[in-house]
Structure prediction request, 87 residues.
Amino acid sequence: MHWEVTDHVCRACFGRILKRESDDGDGWLYRCSNCGAEAAGRRETVICSCGIKLRTGKDAGIRCMPNTQPTPECPSQIVAEQVVSRL
Prediction:
């Protein structure tokens, strides 16, 4: 198995998401490098913070993005942040 590191974080624990081609070759298998959660799909949103939805099913507006201000308390390269809608 060859796993690639993505620029996404797990919606359960905020660990980095890894991906590899699915066994059937039709999509990807995503796995959290921290908690081990797995999901199959065509996009990272099946497991990452970008796919977080409100109870109503509406997009929560959270996106995985580079940490522009890493600190000793939060050295993560990728973090989940709420984005402002421009509607």
The chain has a mean pLDDT of 93.
